[in-house]
Amino acid sequence: MELDLVEISPQATPPVCKIMDYQKFLYEQRRKAKEIKAKSAKVVIKEIRLGPHTDDHDFQFKVNHAEKFLNDGFKVKVDVFFKGRTIVYKDQGELMLLKFATALEDVGRVESMPKLEGKRMIMILVPKK
Fold it and tell me: Which CATH class is domain 45-127?
């Protein structure tokens, strides 16, 4: 009949075995795992980069992009990049990120507060449900 004898529970007394088509069993397991993986939500992070001296118009332009991303259900990673000696303006960068968060408080919430990592200050926003 081209079936296999598969040991199901070797610890039981007496051991439990089952007669089945083992290749078909493996195929169905792989297919179920693939379906579960396909149904899981994929988290996409969009990134927006600012400078410590970004003007109001450019800032508003970036806020509009972030609002669109949040409405589409993506996470938004906002970072202020400090080049060279601009690292002395860390406080301006943090104020800019907090201003960014308050501009988007109706569509998103802050997942992680601004923190400095090397030459970048990073904040992550997630969409409100």
Answer: alpha beta
